[in-house]
Amino acid sequence: QDWVKENVAPFVPATNILAISVGSEILSTGNKVLISQLVPAMQNLHTALVGASLDKQIKVSTPHSLGILSASEPPSIGRFRRGYDRVILKPLLNFLRTTGAPFMINPYPYFGYTDKTLNYAL
């Protein structure tokens, strides 16, 4: 709660803060301790936003890499990697749904074009 009071609340409404990211691509680190603390950290931050009456305006999420997908092309066959699907992502997705927060992903489109040798491709 102190973090929200000191680092978020003083800047609202002058700054239009829509979301706070808890880490970035935490699942890709492979750090089991860090991964296990991700959703609880997001819940704690959301609780602090509720206490400051900012939870309707500011959502809590975490961005993921495309590596959490076993397939993504075409998008209609997109699936989460086994092991992430129920154990890790289910509580995360439940939290996002309950709080109305977005699911965030870092697509890095640049890497899809690095093998192109045409001067205009990049």
Automatic annotation (TrEMBL):
Q: Which InterPro entries match?
A: GH, Glyco_hydro_17, Glyco_hydro_17_plant
UniProtKB keywords: Glycosidase, Hydrolase
Pfam families associated with the record: Glyco_hydro_17
Q: What are the GO BP annotations of this UniProt entry? A: carbohydrate metabolic process
| SUPFAM superfamilies linked to this entry | (Trans)glycosidases
Q: Is Hydrolase there in the keyword field?
A: yes
What are the GO MF terms of this UniProt record?
hydrolase activity, hydrolyzing O-glycosyl compounds
Member of which family?
Answer: Belongs to the glycosyl hydrolase 17 family.
Q: Which PANTHER family match?
A: GLUCAN ENDO-1,3-BETA-GLUCOSIDASE BG1-RELATED-RELATED (PTHR32227)
Please identify the protein, giving its name as recorded.
Putative glucosidase-like protein
